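in:
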């Protein structure tokens, strides 16, 4: 089904369920691009971890997630892809792949741009 956008006045904690990222990025560090769309299961991690690894991490406009499987993570070519979370019976796009570290590096999360702060702008441009 379709992916929903977060409600403009929702609280962030409403969307901490199961999460997935999809993309055609590299399948390993310095590897080749995926031939088929790939999916990764992710979990929310403490934002302090993203602050530790990424000086440019901003809690107001970013969210921090990490892969559930070691050695599997977003990689070059996945930037701009969706981070979606399951909320009750539908998927909501919570984030957009922004940046991370070396692909699949153990214990290093990925920083995602939060969608919710941009909802008023999206509504003004697209009407949704």
């Amino acid at each position: 089904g379709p992916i929903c956008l977060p409600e403009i006045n929702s609280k962030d904690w409403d969307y901490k369920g199961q999460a997935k990222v999809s993309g055609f990025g590299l399948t390993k560090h310095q590897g080749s691009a995926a031939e088929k769309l790939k999916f990764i299961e992710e979990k929310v991690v403490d934002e302090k971890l993203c602050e530790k690894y990424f000086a440019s991490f901003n809690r107001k406009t970013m969210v921090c997630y990490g892969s559930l499987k070691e050695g599997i993570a977003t990689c070059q070519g996945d930037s701009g892809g969706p981070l979606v979370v399951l909320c009750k019976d539908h998927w909501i796009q919570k984030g957009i792949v922004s940046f991370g570290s070396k692909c699949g590096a153990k214990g290093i999360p990925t920083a995602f741009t939060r969608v919710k702060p941009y909802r008023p702008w999206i509504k003004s441009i697209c009407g949704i």
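note: The radius of gyration is 14 Å.
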